[in-house]
Amino acid sequence: MIAAEAADDQPAIRAINDAAFGRPDESDLIDRLRIEGAVVLSLVASFGGQPVGHLLFSRMWIDTASGTVPAVALAPLAVMPAHQRSGIGSALVRRGLDELKRAGERVALVLGHAAYYPRFGFSSELARALDHPFPPGALMALELRPGALDEVRGRVRYASSFGL
Questions:
Q1: Cβ of 113: how many Cβ atoms within 10 Å?
Q2: Rounded to two decimals, what is the model's pTM?
Q3: Tens digits of residue pLDDT in 50-97
Q4: Residue 120: closest CA among 38, 51, 34, 57
Q5: Cα–Cα separations (whole angstroms), residue 82 to 16, 20, 52, 89, 139
Q6: Calpha distance 11→147 (Å, rounded)
Q7: Alpha-carbon dihedral 105, 107, 91, 8, rounded to 10 degrees
Q8: CA gap 79, 89 in Å, rounded
Q9: Distance of CA 90 to the CA centre of its chain
């Protein structure tokens, strides 16, 4: 079952991210994004009544010569180690992208595994006109509305919680 994060899910979300990444950095980022008010969508996946997966999208922007284009950043995506490679992460991403489309979001960006995120439509080629601080090809984009990145040239700007 996948549902929007509830206030009482926060300890479980921290446990999921800490276990999945083996460190508290992502959990601390989530806390900072909540405080900053940058969380756009936070989903929790449960299995057998226990939270086992988490996905967060936060507000970000693309600063262009003609103005600012709103976008969302996918980060982090975490699944408890015992439940990884079972489709929970993919289900979270698909559900999240569907909800973002329904909410009218236009662009999603992710810095992640080049072998994983293209299955959802993310492409480093779509991000080629975006200036960012990452190695070439590392940032991937997805148009949640066809043509959303047409003519968009500019620098990505993450929520300040990312420290970029």
A1: 11
A2: 0.95
A3: 999 999 999 999 999 999 999 999 999 999 999 999 999 999 999 999
A4: 57
A5: 11, 9, 9, 12, 28
A6: 39
A7: -60
A8: 6
A9: 12
